[in-house]
Amino acid sequence: MTTLQPALPALPTGGSPGSAVRRRSRRAKITAAVFAAPALVLLGALVGYPIVYSVIRSLFDAKGHRFVGLDNYHELFTDHATLLALRNTMVWVLVVPALLTGIGLVLAVLTDRVRWKTAFRLVVFMPMAVSFLAAGITFRLVYDQDPNRGVLNAVTVSVHDAFSDAAGYPDARPRQGQGGTLAGDGHGGFTTVRAAAPGQTVTLGMVGILPAKLPKSSVAAVPAAATPGAVTGTVYLDFKPGGGGRPGQVDPGERGLPGIRVQLERDGHTVGHATSGPDGTFRFSGVPDGSYKVALPGSNFASAYGGISWLGPGLVTPAIMAAYLWVWTGFALVLIGAGLAALPREVLEAARMDGASEWQTFRRITVPLLAPVLSVVFVTLIINVMKVFDLVYIIAPGPVQQNANVLALQMWLVSFGGGNNQGLGSAIGVVLLLLVIPAMIINIRRFRRSGS
User: Fold this and answer.
1) Are 243 and 356 in a shared domain?
2) pTM attached to this predicted model
3) Which of 129, 237, 319, 324 has its CA 20 to 30 A from that of 186?
4) Which DSSP category does 128 fall into?
């Protein structure tokens, strides 16, 4: 009997199956390379070339003609301005990312179960659409020292004046020469030149005040009436609109100075207090016989409270940080809110049913489950904070810019802002890159783990 053998499959012409697979793989790689080539060229031109050139340029002198090795790096870590910029950058890195992440987490949790959370997050996210240039100009006006221009100081002055008596006559001074009855006391106030006794009156004429700046309660000044057993007087603006009048005497048309604090003194001790009325008159009643002087304390003429110097040397960095928080809070809120929406609700509900309080649920369940999102937000903010430039350059006034300086701004100042030392500027750029790379590596690894 003859046994039939099964027919073998025909081999493909032109080679083995392995060679065909290799050809297909090679064609796929070539296709991928063709499509990736434009992006790789742009990446090399916009990222790779500047990095390599900056490293090489940092090894040369200011003009780029002489090789100096690591001298620029030595100068970087010995120059006071650069060290101050490095210190401020570290302060930014330690404070701002943690603060922004915490604020975003709190806002995301608080608004998670309210109907209008989308509208709230939209409003908070809106500053992200504003350029740093516009944000810097806006906050430069917000922090302006003049309460008539700076919104923050306008609020500060209003609150201060609501709880503290403001000086009403900072520019007032007594009339000198003929008709002058007051002399300086050495503490910003004034006291009468001649002594007064009970039953006598004193006239305290002041000048240096614009009639239009007088309080609305001010009325026409009147001479105080002499009263037995009392010292009386009038504090008034010794100036008659239109001219005329006699210095040192209350004339028709002259107005009183209301709200002036007046003291009665004897042998250097204060024995009485009074306040002038709308017509400028005041009275000390029940005064024993003796010789007294009338004094106007310096608090009447102290400069008015002008608010807080938000852009002064001590507060300029926190003020700029606050502006940065205003811009980037929406970023943290939206990303953390998206992570919060993806959490398994049954875990949170089970914790609440087991008797866990909201704080325990937040601390032991919500935060641990959100840890990957929080780390991404935190590291991303670290990278952005290290590169902050616009806000510091725009908000900080020239005289205090060095107090708020950061590495990115110092790199620009050294290279193009007057220093004209691109060797040192390149060295600062390289150091800044080295500081950013660890944070970038952490973020890349996090993205790869989340995608796998």
Assistant:
1) no
2) 0.74
3) 237
4) G
